[in-house]
Sequence to fold (641 residues):
Amino acid sequence: MADNPASEPSYKVDALIAEDIEKYLELHQTKGLLRFITCGSVDDGKSTLIGRLLYDSKMIFEDQLAALEADSKKVGTQGQEIDFALLVDGLAAEREQGITIDVAYRFFATEKRKFIVADTPGHEQYTRNMVTGASTADLAVILVDARKGVLTQTKRHSFIAHLLGIKHLVLAVNKMDLVDYDQSTFEHIVADYRSFASEIGITEFTPIPISGFKGDNITHAPSDNTKWYAGPSLIDHLETVEIANFAAQSDSFRMPVQWVNRPNLDFRGFSGLIASGTVKPGDTIRVVPSGKTSTVERIVTMGGDLDEAVSGQSVTITLADEIDVSRGSVLAAADDPPESADQFEANIVWMSEDALIPGRGYWLKLATQTVSATIAQPKYEIDVNSLEHLAAKTLGLNAIGVAEVTTDKPITFESYGDSRQLGGFVLIDKLTNATVGAGMINFSLRRAQNVHWQSVDITREQHAGIKNQKPAVLWFTGLSGSGKSTIANMVEKKLFRMNRHTFLLDGDNVRHGLNKDLGFTEQDRIENIRRVGEVAKLMADAGLIVITAFISPFRAERQMVRDMLPEGEFIEVHVDTPLEVAEARDVKGLYAKARSGQLKNFTGIDSPYEEPESPEIRIDTTAMTPEEAADLIVDKLLGDA
Fold:
């Protein structure tokens, strides 16, 4: 191996590791850290390249090497030679199929820099995995098989890397050994890629001809086989490319507050990771979204106070003034604060097998802020293979689209192009807590800046006080024919006779006016409940006891309405009637139409009903009469009041 310059690593583990471990660790701590990903088409050699980097950097132990040699003979794809891909492809399915499925993270280091590399899958169905790996990367190595050239998946991964804000791209033309290290083949691939890259806004990339298997131009360039190549080796480029944290130090100061640190009465600090810029004691900062300003008094760390802190550092900042700061606030340069709004346009990558449901409430997490958000019907979906804009009503697994997002309160953000920390967010399903999507903010909507809350003098408490009652929303839910409307009507009559101020919103009645434009698709059902919830909230603000009778089949939408109201004001009443009993009543003949196929999307037949898991009141209509149910509900309501 010593006779082959392509295989002889030009970097090695620092000799200090054997001579003075403490000094080595001290030096190791001060090295910069570069995060990068490898991506490209299937079988372009991503895992082999990473395995080669680990092997050449002596980052595998003797027992791992022995296991690798044994596995290479057993399940490898390189004959009797070492199959470096097996160092990374850990899943059994990956080894059996010879592909990467999950994102594999590996650490290695040279004398100049530390690295975390993510090996991302090439198959289209694992696009979400690639997005996960790319979200924190500073650089992307796009591999291209020299025999195949630029493929559709190469374009897709380049587009995603660019979309996710990766500014440094390496075009690694791999398997040059299989085309006899032909210079014209390399130059033709580079020209093809440059033509495509310019179409999507990629202006710079570094092309390198390599052989991950043989080692050409990985650690030393040019190799004996590529004397015509005049650029850097892959590792030389990785060691010298600018790291995002250092670049961010020249930006304006931003620190999302993760924790209000108050161990005793004499100390109050705000802890977080500095997203960009620098900060010193004496600097004037602005708290967003409140807009309050103060001066930095101290920068506190475990190792003592700092005279200056920079992006990438976790610190606790104390202020000279007692102003309101909480988790989710952003400390920023006073003369250049980030934006705050509740409506914006974003690129969204959908990562769930369950499609996006426009209008449904999701948790949106951006930096340290968590708010409730709804996604409008996408403006369009992006075909990542052809880059065409396609009409779309929703987004399925691995789809990428552009949509407007509305949050229940303003959030502090910047465009993703300016700040990945304050421009990127994830979407979380409220019921399962599963991450279902990732988003990159483009800009706030103008209407978000022009529409403001108008302050009024009469409060909701005063409205309720003059009526001598506590406002509430009695939310009746159940199958069609369960008896919701009958019981709700009886409840209102009983409360009316007790001089209570009420209003009944019935599902059928609302669809004659407010919601006459809505059908019965899942999306329309969600919008139906959202509108009713907003109306019920306004009526509760007026001090009324609001009674609603809607099938409202989805838990997420009932939770959405609950979240609109102060705690304790939403009372869920599950009118629990078995399907066969409700169908037997069928006074409107709807079940018969649904069974015959004349009525589509009918709850209980071809559309699901999600029963409440913990309703405040459960009514078993097979065990009590409507009159008894109404008495129970009124007693519960007034007893709580």
User: Anything to note?
Assistant: The first strand starts at residue 32 and ends at 40. The chain has a mean pLDDT of 85.
